[in-house]
Amino acid sequence: MQQEVIIAGFGGQGVLFAGQLLAYAAMDAGKEVTWIPSYGPEMRGGTANCTVVISDEEIGSPFVKNPAAVLAMNLPSLDKYEDLVKPGGVLVVNTSMVNRQVERENIKVVSVAANEVAEMAGSKRAVNMVMLGALLANADLLSLEALETALEDHLPERHKKFMPANKAALRQGAAHKAVEVVKS
Amino acid sequence: MAKELIKGNTAVAEAALRVGLEAYFGYPITPQTELLEHLSARMPELGRPFVQAESELGAINMVYGAACTGKRVMTSSSSPGVSLMMEGLSYIAGTEVPAVFVDVVRGGPGLGNIAPAQGDYNQIVHGGGHGDYHLIVLAPASVQEAIDLTGLAFDLADKYRSIVCIMLDGSLGQMMEPAEIPPMQPLKAEIPDWAVRGNSDGDRRILTSINLDPPAQERMNYRLMTRWQEIEANEVRFKSYYLDDADFVVVGFGTAGRIALSAVRAAREKGIKIGLLRPITVAPFPNEVLEELTEKVKGFLVVEMNAGQMLEDVRLVVRGRKPVEFFGRMGGVVPFPDEVLTEIERLVAVPLTTNGHPRDRWLARMADVIG
Questions:
Q1: B121 close to B309: Cβ distance less than 8 angstroms
Q2: What is the ipTM for the molecules in this complex?
Protein backbone atom coordinates (compact mmCIF):
# COMPACT_ATOMS: atom_id res chain seq x y z
CA MET A 1 0.00 0.00 0.00
CA GLN A 2 1.50 3.31 -1.08
CA GLN A 3 0.10 6.81 -0.85
CA GLU A 4 1.48 10.05 -2.15
CA VAL A 5 0.82 13.63 -1.10
CA ILE A 6 1.93 16.78 -2.87
CA ILE A 7 1.76 19.96 -0.80
CA ALA A 8 2.06 23.16 -2.79
CA GLY A 9 1.80 26.86 -2.09
CA PHE A 10 3.74 30.09 -1.69
CA GLY A 11 7.05 30.12 0.15
CA GLY A 12 6.20 31.04 3.75
CA GLN A 13 2.94 29.09 3.96
CA GLY A 14 4.64 26.23 5.77
CA VAL A 15 4.53 23.89 2.79
CA LEU A 16 7.82 22.15 3.47
CA PHE A 17 7.24 21.80 7.21
CA ALA A 18 3.75 20.39 6.66
CA GLY A 19 5.32 17.71 4.47
CA GLN A 20 8.02 16.99 7.03
CA LEU A 21 5.42 16.64 9.74
CA LEU A 22 3.56 14.06 7.65
CA ALA A 23 6.86 12.27 7.09
CA TYR A 24 7.70 12.27 10.82
CA ALA A 25 4.26 10.89 11.68
CA ALA A 26 4.61 8.19 9.02
CA MET A 27 8.08 7.26 10.26
CA ASP A 28 6.86 7.07 13.86
CA ALA A 29 4.04 4.79 12.65
CA GLY A 30 6.70 2.41 11.30
CA LYS A 31 6.10 3.23 7.64
CA GLU A 32 8.58 3.81 4.84
CA VAL A 33 8.50 7.45 3.81
CA THR A 34 10.23 9.90 1.49
CA TRP A 35 10.04 13.69 1.58
CA ILE A 36 11.45 15.65 -1.30
CA PRO A 37 11.19 19.40 -1.82
CA SER A 38 11.23 21.43 -4.95
CA TYR A 39 14.57 23.06 -4.36
CA GLY A 40 14.88 25.28 -7.38
CA PRO A 41 15.70 28.99 -7.17
CA GLU A 42 11.96 29.60 -7.51
CA MET A 43 11.69 28.80 -3.80
CA ARG A 44 12.66 32.34 -2.94
CA GLY A 45 9.40 34.24 -2.86
CA GLY A 46 7.83 32.01 -5.46
CA THR A 47 6.01 28.71 -5.30
CA ALA A 48 7.18 25.89 -3.07
CA ASN A 49 6.11 22.29 -3.07
CA CYS A 50 7.10 18.99 -1.62
CA THR A 51 6.19 15.38 -2.31
CA VAL A 52 5.68 12.87 0.48
CA VAL A 53 5.41 9.16 -0.32
CA ILE A 54 4.23 6.82 2.45
CA SER A 55 4.40 3.07 1.98
CA ASP A 56 4.53 -0.30 3.70
CA GLU A 57 7.43 -1.48 1.50
CA GLU A 58 10.68 -0.10 0.06
CA ILE A 59 9.75 3.07 -1.81
CA GLY A 60 10.68 3.25 -5.46
CA SER A 61 10.28 6.69 -6.96
CA PRO A 62 10.16 9.63 -4.53
CA PHE A 63 8.60 11.63 -7.38
CA VAL A 64 5.01 11.08 -8.44
CA LYS A 65 3.10 12.44 -11.38
CA ASN A 66 -0.37 11.48 -10.13
CA PRO A 67 -0.53 11.71 -6.33
CA ALA A 68 -3.32 10.28 -4.20
CA ALA A 69 -3.68 13.65 -2.50
CA VAL A 70 -2.86 17.28 -3.17
CA LEU A 71 -2.96 20.21 -0.79
CA ALA A 72 -3.32 23.31 -2.96
CA MET A 73 -2.59 26.26 -0.71
CA ASN A 74 -2.96 28.91 -3.43
CA LEU A 75 -4.26 29.44 -6.97
CA PRO A 76 -1.07 28.62 -8.92
CA SER A 77 -0.90 25.31 -7.02
CA LEU A 78 -4.52 24.50 -7.85
CA ASP A 79 -3.87 25.35 -11.50
CA LYS A 80 -0.79 23.14 -11.56
CA TYR A 81 -2.05 20.07 -9.70
CA GLU A 82 -5.84 19.92 -10.14
CA ASP A 83 -5.62 17.71 -13.21
CA LEU A 84 -2.89 15.50 -11.74
CA VAL A 85 -4.72 14.10 -8.71
CA LYS A 86 -5.22 10.35 -9.10
CA PRO A 87 -8.86 9.42 -9.87
CA GLY A 88 -10.56 8.79 -6.54
CA GLY A 89 -7.93 10.89 -4.78
CA VAL A 90 -8.31 13.90 -2.52
CA LEU A 91 -7.80 17.55 -3.40
CA VAL A 92 -7.75 19.96 -0.47
CA VAL A 93 -8.15 23.55 -1.64
CA ASN A 94 -7.43 26.65 0.38
CA THR A 95 -10.38 28.71 -0.79
CA SER A 96 -8.97 31.77 0.99
CA MET A 97 -6.35 32.00 -1.76
CA VAL A 98 -8.35 30.72 -4.73
CA ASN A 99 -10.94 32.66 -6.70
CA ARG A 100 -12.44 29.91 -8.79
CA GLN A 101 -14.29 26.64 -8.47
CA VAL A 102 -12.58 23.27 -8.78
CA GLU A 103 -13.43 21.83 -12.19
CA ARG A 104 -11.96 18.37 -11.79
CA GLU A 105 -14.25 15.33 -11.62
CA ASN A 106 -13.91 11.87 -10.07
CA ILE A 107 -12.00 13.06 -7.04
CA LYS A 108 -12.91 14.13 -3.52
CA VAL A 109 -12.63 17.87 -3.01
CA VAL A 110 -12.25 19.44 0.41
CA SER A 111 -12.80 23.19 0.35
CA VAL A 112 -11.31 24.99 3.32
CA ALA A 113 -11.01 28.72 3.92
CA ALA A 114 -7.74 27.84 5.61
CA ASN A 115 -6.49 31.39 6.22
CA GLU A 116 -9.68 32.32 8.10
CA VAL A 117 -9.83 29.01 9.96
CA ALA A 118 -6.21 29.37 11.03
CA GLU A 119 -6.79 32.88 12.32
CA MET A 120 -9.84 31.74 14.27
CA ALA A 121 -7.81 28.87 15.68
CA GLY A 122 -5.36 31.36 17.13
CA SER A 123 -2.54 31.75 14.58
CA LYS A 124 -2.75 32.95 11.02
CA ARG A 125 0.49 31.08 10.37
CA ALA A 126 -1.18 27.72 11.05
CA VAL A 127 -2.69 27.55 7.54
CA ASN A 128 -0.60 24.45 6.86
CA MET A 129 -2.03 22.71 9.93
CA VAL A 130 -5.60 23.48 8.86
CA MET A 131 -4.87 21.96 5.46
CA LEU A 132 -3.22 18.89 6.99
CA GLY A 133 -6.21 18.39 9.31
CA ALA A 134 -8.57 18.57 6.35
CA LEU A 135 -6.45 15.99 4.51
CA LEU A 136 -6.29 13.49 7.35
CA ALA A 137 -10.04 13.68 7.98
CA ASN A 138 -10.72 12.75 4.37
CA ALA A 139 -7.95 10.32 3.42
CA ASP A 140 -7.00 6.98 4.91
CA LEU A 141 -3.45 8.06 5.60
CA LEU A 142 -2.60 8.65 9.26
CA SER A 143 -4.58 9.55 12.37
CA LEU A 144 -4.89 13.11 13.65
CA GLU A 145 -3.42 11.86 16.93
CA ALA A 146 -0.32 10.56 15.15
CA LEU A 147 0.18 13.95 13.58
CA GLU A 148 -0.31 15.75 16.90
CA THR A 149 2.32 13.52 18.48
CA ALA A 150 4.70 14.25 15.61
CA LEU A 151 4.02 17.96 16.11
CA GLU A 152 4.87 17.72 19.80
CA ASP A 153 8.04 15.78 19.06
CA HIS A 154 9.32 17.77 16.13
CA LEU A 155 8.04 21.35 16.33
CA PRO A 156 11.17 23.47 16.92
CA GLU A 157 11.49 24.55 20.56
CA ARG A 158 11.14 28.23 19.72
CA HIS A 159 7.72 27.52 18.19
CA LYS A 160 6.38 25.45 21.08
CA LYS A 161 4.27 28.39 22.26
CA PHE A 162 2.19 27.96 19.10
CA MET A 163 1.32 24.37 19.99
CA PRO A 164 -2.25 25.04 21.20
CA ALA A 165 -3.02 27.10 18.08
CA ASN A 166 -1.49 24.43 15.85
CA LYS A 167 -3.52 21.68 17.46
CA ALA A 168 -6.72 23.76 17.25
CA ALA A 169 -5.95 24.46 13.59
CA LEU A 170 -5.51 20.73 12.91
CA ARG A 171 -8.82 19.91 14.61
CA GLN A 172 -10.76 22.68 12.92
CA GLY A 173 -9.30 21.71 9.57
CA ALA A 174 -10.39 18.14 10.21
CA ALA A 175 -13.98 19.28 10.66
CA HIS A 176 -14.20 19.90 6.89
CA LYS A 177 -15.72 17.08 4.91
CA ALA A 178 -15.02 16.27 1.31
CA VAL A 179 -17.50 16.61 -1.51
CA GLU A 180 -17.39 13.92 -4.16
CA VAL A 181 -17.41 15.66 -7.49
CA VAL A 182 -19.43 13.65 -9.97
CA LYS A 183 -20.52 15.05 -13.30
CA SER A 184 -24.31 15.55 -13.33
CA MET B 1 19.27 3.09 17.65
CA ALA B 2 16.11 4.84 16.53
CA LYS B 3 15.69 6.01 12.99
CA GLU B 4 15.67 9.71 12.29
CA LEU B 5 14.25 11.63 9.35
CA ILE B 6 17.31 13.02 7.65
CA LYS B 7 18.38 14.66 4.41
CA GLY B 8 20.80 12.74 2.16
CA ASN B 9 23.48 15.43 2.22
CA THR B 10 23.37 15.79 5.99
CA ALA B 11 23.31 12.03 6.47
CA VAL B 12 26.46 11.48 4.42
CA ALA B 13 28.23 14.26 6.33
CA GLU B 14 27.29 12.89 9.74
CA ALA B 15 28.08 9.31 8.70
CA ALA B 16 31.53 10.34 7.44
CA LEU B 17 32.28 12.05 10.70
CA ARG B 18 31.18 9.06 12.76
CA VAL B 19 33.34 6.60 10.81
CA GLY B 20 36.38 8.69 11.51
CA LEU B 21 36.62 11.57 9.05
CA GLU B 22 39.55 13.58 10.40
CA ALA B 23 39.74 16.46 7.95
CA TYR B 24 37.33 17.97 5.44
CA PHE B 25 38.10 20.45 2.69
CA GLY B 26 35.42 21.79 0.37
CA TYR B 27 33.72 24.63 -1.40
CA PRO B 28 29.95 25.23 -1.39
CA ILE B 29 27.82 24.41 -4.41
CA THR B 30 24.15 23.52 -4.75
CA PRO B 31 22.74 20.85 -4.46
CA GLN B 32 25.55 19.63 -2.20
CA THR B 33 25.90 22.53 0.23
CA GLU B 34 24.13 20.99 3.26
CA LEU B 35 26.91 18.40 3.40
CA LEU B 36 29.60 21.04 3.78
CA GLU B 37 27.36 23.14 6.04
CA HIS B 38 26.77 20.26 8.43
CA LEU B 39 30.49 19.52 8.68
CA SER B 40 31.30 23.21 9.16
CA ALA B 41 29.38 22.98 12.43
CA ARG B 42 30.26 19.45 13.53
CA MET B 43 33.97 19.17 12.72
CA PRO B 44 35.06 22.09 14.95
CA GLU B 45 32.91 20.65 17.77
CA LEU B 46 35.10 17.57 17.62
CA GLY B 47 38.33 19.50 17.20
CA ARG B 48 38.82 18.22 13.66
CA PRO B 49 39.84 20.46 10.76
CA PHE B 50 37.14 21.86 8.49
CA VAL B 51 38.39 24.15 5.76
CA GLN B 52 36.27 26.04 3.28
CA ALA B 53 38.87 26.40 0.58
CA GLU B 54 39.15 29.32 -1.86
CA SER B 55 38.01 27.06 -4.68
CA GLU B 56 37.49 23.42 -5.62
CA LEU B 57 41.09 23.33 -6.87
CA GLY B 58 42.28 24.37 -3.46
CA ALA B 59 39.99 21.88 -1.74
CA ILE B 60 41.11 18.83 -3.71
CA ASN B 61 44.78 19.69 -3.29
CA MET B 62 44.28 20.11 0.45
CA VAL B 63 42.68 16.66 0.41
CA TYR B 64 45.75 15.42 -1.49
CA GLY B 65 48.13 16.76 1.13
CA ALA B 66 46.08 15.59 4.09
CA ALA B 67 45.59 12.13 2.53
CA CYS B 68 49.38 11.72 2.52
CA THR B 69 49.28 11.60 6.34
CA GLY B 70 47.19 8.42 6.20
CA LYS B 71 44.21 10.06 7.93
CA ARG B 72 40.62 9.73 6.73
CA VAL B 73 39.93 12.79 4.59
CA MET B 74 37.27 13.86 2.16
CA THR B 75 35.76 16.56 0.02
CA SER B 76 32.41 16.98 -1.65
CA SER B 77 31.03 18.99 -4.52
CA SER B 78 28.60 18.95 -7.41
CA SER B 79 29.24 18.48 -11.11
CA PRO B 80 30.93 21.76 -12.18
CA GLY B 81 32.96 21.74 -8.98
CA VAL B 82 33.96 18.14 -9.51
CA SER B 83 35.20 18.99 -13.00
CA LEU B 84 37.58 21.46 -11.37
CA MET B 85 38.92 18.68 -9.13
CA MET B 86 39.93 16.32 -11.93
CA GLU B 87 43.60 17.28 -12.01
CA GLY B 88 43.90 16.77 -8.26
CA LEU B 89 42.14 13.41 -8.44
CA SER B 90 44.62 12.18 -11.02
CA TYR B 91 47.50 13.29 -8.76
CA ILE B 92 45.94 11.53 -5.77
CA ALA B 93 45.47 8.38 -7.84
CA GLY B 94 49.06 8.66 -9.07
CA THR B 95 50.33 8.98 -5.50
CA GLU B 96 48.28 6.00 -4.33
CA VAL B 97 46.81 7.66 -1.25
CA PRO B 98 43.28 7.00 -0.01
CA ALA B 99 40.63 9.71 -0.31
CA VAL B 100 36.85 9.91 -0.43
CA PHE B 101 34.85 12.41 -2.41
CA VAL B 102 31.16 12.95 -2.90
CA ASP B 103 29.65 14.16 -6.16
CA VAL B 104 26.03 15.30 -5.82
CA VAL B 105 25.37 15.35 -9.55
CA ARG B 106 23.31 18.16 -11.13
CA GLY B 107 22.09 19.02 -14.60
CA GLY B 108 24.74 19.85 -17.20
CA PRO B 109 26.88 20.20 -19.22
CA GLY B 110 28.38 23.56 -18.31
CA LEU B 111 26.98 25.50 -15.39
CA GLY B 112 23.71 23.73 -16.18
CA ASN B 113 21.24 23.84 -13.34
CA ILE B 114 20.79 22.51 -9.81
CA ALA B 115 18.29 19.76 -10.63
CA PRO B 116 19.08 16.05 -10.16
CA ALA B 117 21.01 14.30 -12.96
CA GLN B 118 23.44 11.45 -13.65
CA GLY B 119 25.46 13.08 -16.40
CA ASP B 120 28.75 12.73 -14.51
CA TYR B 121 28.84 8.94 -14.91
CA ASN B 122 31.45 8.93 -17.67
CA GLN B 123 33.62 11.54 -15.98
CA ILE B 124 33.63 9.70 -12.67
CA VAL B 125 33.57 6.07 -13.82
CA HIS B 126 35.74 6.28 -16.92
CA GLY B 127 38.34 8.73 -15.77
CA GLY B 128 38.10 12.46 -16.07
CA GLY B 129 41.60 13.14 -14.90
CA HIS B 130 44.56 12.13 -17.05
CA GLY B 131 46.33 8.80 -17.05
CA ASP B 132 45.39 5.21 -16.34
CA TYR B 133 43.53 5.00 -13.08
CA HIS B 134 40.17 3.86 -11.77
CA LEU B 135 37.99 5.22 -9.02
CA ILE B 136 35.80 2.98 -6.94
CA VAL B 137 32.36 4.52 -7.50
CA LEU B 138 29.45 3.85 -5.16
CA ALA B 139 25.96 4.83 -6.28
CA PRO B 140 23.41 4.78 -3.44
CA ALA B 141 19.69 5.03 -4.13
CA SER B 142 18.39 5.90 -0.67
CA VAL B 143 19.49 7.91 2.34
CA GLN B 144 20.15 4.73 4.34
CA GLU B 145 22.23 3.28 1.54
CA ALA B 146 24.16 6.56 1.27
CA ILE B 147 24.98 6.30 4.99
CA ASP B 148 26.04 2.66 4.74
CA LEU B 149 28.15 3.31 1.65
CA THR B 150 29.89 6.25 3.31
CA GLY B 151 31.35 3.84 5.86
CA LEU B 152 32.26 1.42 3.11
CA ALA B 153 33.88 4.21 1.07
CA PHE B 154 36.43 4.96 3.78
CA ASP B 155 37.13 1.26 4.36
CA LEU B 156 37.71 0.62 0.66
CA ALA B 157 39.83 3.75 0.28
CA ASP B 158 42.09 2.57 3.11
CA LYS B 159 42.18 -1.04 1.95
CA TYR B 160 43.15 -0.30 -1.66
CA ARG B 161 44.89 3.08 -1.23
CA SER B 162 42.32 4.26 -3.72
CA ILE B 163 39.99 7.17 -4.32
CA VAL B 164 36.39 6.28 -3.64
CA CYS B 165 33.60 8.43 -5.03
CA ILE B 166 30.11 8.40 -3.56
CA MET B 167 28.01 9.49 -6.51
CA LEU B 168 24.63 10.89 -5.48
CA ASP B 169 22.32 13.12 -7.42
CA GLY B 170 20.54 16.28 -6.44
CA SER B 171 17.36 14.53 -5.36
CA LEU B 172 19.15 12.07 -3.08
CA GLY B 173 21.07 14.97 -1.56
CA GLN B 174 17.89 16.94 -0.89
CA MET B 175 15.51 14.11 0.00
CA MET B 176 14.63 13.18 3.58
CA GLU B 177 14.07 9.55 4.57
CA PRO B 178 14.08 7.70 7.89
CA ALA B 179 17.54 6.31 8.39
CA GLU B 180 19.90 5.09 11.06
CA ILE B 181 23.38 6.56 11.33
CA PRO B 182 25.97 4.33 13.00
CA PRO B 183 27.23 5.39 16.43
CA MET B 184 30.44 7.40 16.75
CA GLN B 185 33.48 5.21 16.13
CA PRO B 186 37.01 5.76 17.40
CA LEU B 187 39.46 7.39 15.02
CA LYS B 188 41.72 5.18 12.98
CA ALA B 189 44.58 4.32 15.32
CA GLU B 190 47.21 2.70 13.11
CA ILE B 191 49.44 4.79 10.92
CA PRO B 192 50.01 3.21 7.50
CA ASP B 193 53.66 2.45 6.76
CA TRP B 194 53.57 4.69 3.69
CA ALA B 195 52.21 7.77 5.44
CA VAL B 196 54.26 10.95 5.82
CA ARG B 197 53.97 12.39 9.32
CA GLY B 198 56.78 14.87 9.59
CA ASN B 199 58.99 12.62 11.69
CA SER B 200 62.58 13.78 11.35
CA ASP B 201 64.05 10.67 12.96
CA GLY B 202 62.11 8.03 11.03
CA ASP B 203 62.61 6.53 7.59
CA ARG B 204 62.58 9.00 4.76
CA ARG B 205 59.30 8.59 2.89
CA ILE B 206 58.38 10.37 -0.30
CA LEU B 207 54.87 10.48 -1.67
CA THR B 208 54.64 11.94 -5.14
CA SER B 209 52.98 11.37 -8.48
CA ILE B 210 56.03 12.42 -10.50
CA ASN B 211 58.10 9.58 -11.88
CA LEU B 212 60.52 10.65 -14.58
CA ASP B 213 61.72 7.13 -15.27
CA PRO B 214 59.20 5.56 -17.68
CA PRO B 215 59.86 1.91 -16.69
CA ALA B 216 59.36 2.85 -13.04
CA GLN B 217 56.19 4.72 -13.94
CA GLU B 218 55.08 1.70 -15.94
CA ARG B 219 55.56 -0.52 -12.88
CA MET B 220 53.40 1.91 -10.90
CA ASN B 221 50.72 1.71 -13.62
CA TYR B 222 50.94 -2.07 -13.54
CA ARG B 223 50.45 -2.02 -9.77
CA LEU B 224 47.35 0.21 -10.17
CA MET B 225 45.89 -2.07 -12.82
CA THR B 226 46.45 -5.32 -10.93
CA ARG B 227 45.02 -3.70 -7.83
CA TRP B 228 41.98 -2.79 -9.90
CA GLN B 229 41.65 -6.44 -10.94
CA GLU B 230 41.56 -7.31 -7.27
CA ILE B 231 38.88 -4.68 -6.67
CA GLU B 232 36.85 -6.03 -9.60
CA ALA B 233 37.09 -9.53 -8.17
CA ASN B 234 36.09 -8.60 -4.62
CA GLU B 235 34.09 -5.42 -4.40
CA VAL B 236 31.18 -5.64 -6.84
CA ARG B 237 27.86 -4.81 -5.22
CA PHE B 238 24.37 -4.66 -6.68
CA LYS B 239 20.77 -5.16 -5.68
CA SER B 240 18.34 -7.22 -7.69
CA TYR B 241 14.56 -7.13 -7.68
CA TYR B 242 12.19 -9.73 -9.19
CA LEU B 243 14.93 -11.30 -11.31
CA ASP B 244 14.15 -14.97 -10.60
CA ASP B 245 11.54 -15.45 -13.30
CA ALA B 246 12.23 -12.29 -15.31
CA ASP B 247 12.02 -12.37 -19.10
CA PHE B 248 13.19 -8.78 -19.29
CA VAL B 249 15.48 -6.72 -17.08
CA VAL B 250 15.70 -3.01 -16.38
CA VAL B 251 19.18 -1.78 -15.42
CA GLY B 252 19.43 1.51 -13.54
CA PHE B 253 21.54 3.01 -10.76
CA GLY B 254 20.84 5.53 -8.01
CA THR B 255 17.66 7.57 -8.30
CA ALA B 256 16.96 6.30 -11.83
CA GLY B 257 17.15 2.78 -10.38
CA ARG B 258 14.57 3.45 -7.69
CA ILE B 259 12.28 5.25 -10.13
CA ALA B 260 12.58 2.18 -12.35
CA LEU B 261 11.61 0.02 -9.36
CA SER B 262 8.22 1.74 -9.23
CA ALA B 263 7.76 1.11 -12.95
CA VAL B 264 8.85 -2.54 -12.62
CA ARG B 265 6.31 -3.10 -9.85
CA ALA B 266 3.57 -1.50 -11.95
CA ALA B 267 4.56 -3.71 -14.90
CA ARG B 268 4.49 -6.80 -12.66
CA GLU B 269 0.93 -5.88 -11.66
CA LYS B 270 0.09 -6.00 -15.36
CA GLY B 271 1.58 -9.49 -15.60
CA ILE B 272 4.84 -8.51 -17.29
CA LYS B 273 7.74 -10.68 -16.12
CA ILE B 274 10.33 -8.00 -15.60
CA GLY B 275 13.00 -7.46 -12.99
CA LEU B 276 15.46 -4.76 -11.99
CA LEU B 277 19.21 -4.85 -11.62
CA ARG B 278 20.48 -1.85 -9.66
CA PRO B 279 24.28 -1.59 -9.61
CA ILE B 280 25.47 -0.23 -6.26
CA THR B 281 29.09 -0.17 -7.37
CA VAL B 282 29.07 1.29 -10.86
CA ALA B 283 32.86 0.88 -10.75
CA PRO B 284 33.67 -1.98 -10.49
CA PHE B 285 30.66 -2.74 -12.68
CA PRO B 286 28.56 -5.86 -11.96
CA ASN B 287 29.64 -7.63 -15.15
CA GLU B 288 29.19 -11.16 -13.87
CA VAL B 289 25.51 -10.94 -12.93
CA LEU B 290 24.82 -9.12 -16.18
CA GLU B 291 26.55 -11.92 -18.06
CA GLU B 292 24.35 -14.50 -16.33
CA LEU B 293 21.26 -12.46 -17.13
CA THR B 294 22.30 -12.12 -20.77
CA GLU B 295 22.12 -15.89 -21.09
CA LYS B 296 18.70 -16.02 -19.41
CA VAL B 297 16.54 -13.12 -20.52
CA LYS B 298 14.96 -11.81 -23.72
CA GLY B 299 16.14 -8.22 -23.47
CA PHE B 300 17.28 -5.26 -21.41
CA LEU B 301 16.10 -1.70 -20.81
CA VAL B 302 18.73 0.69 -19.42
CA VAL B 303 17.27 3.70 -17.61
CA GLU B 304 19.42 6.70 -16.68
CA MET B 305 19.19 10.42 -15.99
CA ASN B 306 21.63 11.12 -18.82
CA ALA B 307 21.99 10.27 -22.51
CA GLY B 308 23.06 6.66 -21.98
CA GLN B 309 26.44 6.58 -20.27
CA MET B 310 26.15 3.38 -18.20
CA LEU B 311 24.36 2.04 -21.28
CA GLU B 312 27.76 1.54 -22.91
CA ASP B 313 28.99 -0.56 -19.97
CA VAL B 314 25.88 -2.74 -20.25
CA ARG B 315 26.41 -3.12 -24.00
CA LEU B 316 30.03 -4.17 -23.42
CA VAL B 317 28.81 -7.14 -21.40
CA VAL B 318 25.78 -8.04 -23.51
CA ARG B 319 27.82 -7.71 -26.75
CA GLY B 320 24.84 -7.80 -29.08
CA ARG B 321 23.68 -11.22 -27.92
CA LYS B 322 20.40 -9.82 -26.63
CA PRO B 323 18.52 -6.64 -27.49
CA VAL B 324 19.31 -3.62 -25.31
CA GLU B 325 17.02 -0.61 -25.30
CA PHE B 326 17.53 2.74 -23.59
CA PHE B 327 15.42 5.37 -21.90
CA GLY B 328 16.77 8.50 -20.27
CA ARG B 329 15.97 12.09 -19.41
CA MET B 330 18.72 14.70 -19.46
CA GLY B 331 19.74 18.07 -18.16
CA GLY B 332 18.07 17.80 -14.76
CA VAL B 333 14.74 16.39 -15.96
CA VAL B 334 13.75 13.47 -13.75
CA PRO B 335 11.68 10.72 -15.37
CA PHE B 336 8.40 9.76 -13.74
CA PRO B 337 7.72 6.04 -13.20
CA ASP B 338 4.90 6.08 -15.78
CA GLU B 339 7.38 7.11 -18.50
CA VAL B 340 9.54 4.11 -17.62
CA LEU B 341 6.44 1.89 -17.53
CA THR B 342 5.54 3.01 -21.05
CA GLU B 343 9.05 2.03 -22.15
CA ILE B 344 8.70 -1.37 -20.46
CA GLU B 345 5.37 -1.96 -22.20
CA ARG B 346 6.95 -1.01 -25.49
CA LEU B 347 9.91 -3.29 -24.79
CA VAL B 348 7.72 -6.36 -24.38
CA ALA B 349 5.32 -5.48 -27.22
CA VAL B 350 7.47 -4.51 -30.19
CA PRO B 351 9.87 -6.70 -32.19
CA LEU B 352 13.34 -6.03 -30.73
CA THR B 353 16.57 -5.81 -32.63
CA THR B 354 20.25 -6.20 -31.86
CA ASN B 355 21.10 -3.99 -34.84
CA GLY B 356 21.81 -0.27 -34.65
CA HIS B 357 22.32 1.69 -31.45
CA PRO B 358 19.69 1.98 -28.70
CA ARG B 359 20.56 5.65 -28.24
CA ASP B 360 19.60 6.41 -31.84
CA ARG B 361 16.24 4.72 -31.40
CA TRP B 362 15.65 6.54 -28.11
CA LEU B 363 16.55 9.93 -29.62
CA ALA B 364 14.11 9.27 -32.45
CA ARG B 365 11.35 8.40 -29.96
CA MET B 366 12.07 11.51 -27.89
CA ALA B 367 11.92 13.92 -30.86
CA ASP B 368 8.34 14.95 -30.07
CA VAL B 369 8.82 14.86 -26.29
CA ILE B 370 12.01 16.91 -25.99
CA GLY B 371 12.87 18.25 -29.42
A1: yes
A2: 0.93
Cα separation, B23 vs B27, in Å, equals 14
Residues of chain A contacting B5 with CB distance shorter than 8 Å:
20, 23-24, 27, 33, 35
Q: Where are the domains of chain A?
A: 2-180
Position A39 pLDDT exceeds 70: no
Instruction: Tell me: cis bond preceding A87? Omega within 30 of 0 counts.
Output: no
Domains for chain B: give ranges and CATH numbers: 4-234 (3.40.50.970), 239-366 (3.40.50.920)
pLDDT tens, residue by residue, A163-184: 999 999 999 999 999 887 665 4
Q: Are B219 and B91 in contact (CB under 8 A)?
A: no
Q: How far apart are CA B309 and CA B252, in angstroms?
A: 11
Neighbour-count burial for A27-45, b at 16+ CB within 10 Å, e otherwise:
bbeebbbbbbbbbbeeeee
Do residues A27 and A37 touch, judged by C-beta distance below 8 A?
Answer: no
The residue among B339, B305, B320, B358 whose CA lies nearest residue B139 is B305
Helices B310-318 & B287-296, crossing angle to 10 degrees?
60
| B264 interaction partners in chain A (CB closer than 8 Å) | 60
Report chain B residues whose CB lies below 8 A from the CB of A65: 336-338
Span B99-128, average pLDDT: 96
The DSSP output letter for A14 is S
Going by C-alpha positions, the residue among B99, B116, B104 that lies closest to residue B79 is: B104
| Interchain pair B336, A65: CB under 8 A | yes
d(CA B152, CA B16): 10
Amino acid at B102: V
Bridge-based pairing of strands B248-251 and A32-37 is unpaired
B173, closest residue in chain A (CA to CA): A36
Name every chain A residue with its beta carbon within 8 A of the beta carbon of B260: 60
Angle, alpha carbons B223-B228-B233 (nearest 5°): 130
Note the Cα B223 to chain centre separation in Å. Answer: 23
* A113 touches B at CB < 8 Å: no
Protein fold of A2-180 = Pyruvate-ferredoxin Oxidoreductase; domain 3 (3.40.920)
Please tell me what DSSP assigns to residue B144.
Answer: H
Closest chain A residue by Cα to residue B266: A60
